[in-house]
Amino acid sequence: LHKQDTKELDVLKDENAKLQMKQLRLLGKDLAGLNLKELQQLEQQLNEGLSAVKKKKVRQNLDLPSIYFTRVLHKRDSIGSVIEELRGFFSSTDIPNYFDYRPVERKNSLINYGGASPDVAYDSMIERGDSDTTLHLGPPTDVYHKRKAPERDAHSNDSGS
Q: Which of 6, 26, 66, 130 is the most buried (most CB within 10 A)?
């Protein structure tokens, strides 16, 4: 019985040593004893592993917006219940049925939105995923299109009279 336990222990030690060697090689260490074919197999294993990791990362990144959206919905629902609870403290005449919302029109805006309103342009920019965070110094390019003609000397010296 003792002899069989010793054999099993030796087998487990050998297997452990092989696994440790395999782990070192997967980490790019202790590659000295490998021939070209073994190196190519190791490279293939590493490429497959890297590909699997990248796919998993992409899937997780694609899942993030839906996770955040779910969180937002839960927050909205909880805020809605708090609002309803707070409304119970006020009489119905104190609470307006609606809020009058009218966006403020911007006159002489310095930003050119390409014919679209600033809100539409901003929404479109968010949907496309691009935003301009560049700081432009100096006067905007579209503000000074119409320049006054230089004033002529209104007070000319007419010495001929």
A: 26
